[in-house]
Design goal:
The protein has about 300 residues and is an alpha/beta fold. The chain is built from 9 helices and 10 strands. The protein has helices spanning about 20-30, 45-50, 65-80, 105-120, 125-130, 160-180, 210-215, 240-250, 295-310, and strands at about 10-15, 35-40, 55-60, 85-90, 130-135, 185-195, 195, 235, 260-265, 265.
Length: about 300
């Protein structure tokens, strides 16, 4: 993906860039010459995972804590470095109901609002790059739910998968509106579906037995618990999953394109007749983008809602 690409002098921020897809993204960008700052809730643990990778530093970042996000952004701005690439990679998924200090549902707060606040806080550095990209790692799980405009924080009827789907839809809509608003300043937005990667900390909040049962039902692991790798069916290693993030962040093919949903290092077709995601003997896991995730009116509405929630 990066053959022949020289990223010397390029500054990158990767949230959660110390595990799973994020770690492979960090490795690839560093190998091409970029200087990478990894945002992590536990910097010491992240530093261990990143040991030996050149031009990498770690900053404390808790995406569920607005104060932590502001501090991370301030440290970067005070460094005076332009920011060429921001990869909003970190995320949580499908766990029990947890609320942050503001009372916001944790998947929406972490996966979307935290990254929204981070991008806003780093806007000056993105502008200074005079050509920057913001990459939101989303999921085919966006098909599970549109934004629950009347109850985004699940004050009633919490469903972990619907909450995950809403947060992933938000990742896509955020990229769409960011690109509309900031493209004239040379900042482009992308949403990336990495594929289905078993070796990830995304579902660390899900009980181990439940996670194993889900992976078996989706035929992601065999009876011995070993990952089933089948890229043609979107079952990928972390390195394979990271390839579309790296494509979004660096490919010259996207130089004049933004606000799009990418999968398999390409722009996804639009699925106007979305089928439900199902699990079982013959799981249906479809990841092409559906209309509610790229609707421009919804993208603007979500941006406005996100600003209001950050001010509350």
């Amino acid at each position: 993906m990066l053959r022949g690409v020289d990223l010397s002098g390029t500054n990158v921020v990767v949230t959660g860039g110390h595990s799973g897809i994020g770690l492979e993204t960090t490795r690839a960008l560093s190998r091409a010459g970029a200087a990478v700052t990894v945002g992590a809730r536990n910097p010491d643990r992240a530093a261990v995972a990143l040991a030996g990778i050149e031009r990498v530093e770690v900053g404390q970042l808790d995406l569920a804590d607005p104060t932590s996000i502001d501090a991370f952004a301030t440290r970067h701005l005070e460094s005076g470095r332009p920011l060429h690439i921001l990869i909003n990679n970190a995320g949580i998924g499908a766990g029990p109901l947890v609320r942050d200090s503001r009372g916001y549902e944790s998947q929406f707060a972490t996966n979307h609002l935290g990254h929204f606040q981070l991008a806003q806080g780093l806007l000056h550095a993105l502008r200074a790059a005079r050509g920057a990209r913001v990459v939101n790692v989303t999921s085919g799980g966006h098909r599970l739910s549109d934004i629950r405009w009347d109850d985004p924080h699940f004050t009633t009827g919490y469903d972990p998968m619907l909450a995950y789907g809403q947060s992933k839809t938000a990742n896509v809509l955020f990229a769409v509106e960011l690109d509309r608003l900031w493209a004239d300043e040379g900042i482009r937005g992308y949403a990336v579906h990495p594929g289905i990667v078993v070796s990830t900390s995304l579902s660390r909040s899900v009980p181990e037995d439940d996670m194993r049962a889900m992976n078996l039902a989706m035929e992601l692991i065999d009876e011995s618990g070993r990952p089933i790798i089948d890229p043609d069916r979107e079952k990928k290693t972390p390195r394979q999953g990271a390839s579309t993030s790296v494509f979004a962040a660096t490919s010259p093919l996207l130089a004049e394109i933004g606000g799009v949903y990418l999968k398999d290092s390409d722009i996804s077709p639009l699925d106007n007749d979305p089928k439900p995601i199902t699990f079982g003997t013959t799981p249906i896991v479809v990841s092409t983008v559906v209309p509610h995730a790229i609707d421009p009116l919804s993208a603007t509405r979500l941006w406005d809602l996100s600003e209001q929630l950050l001010k509350a």
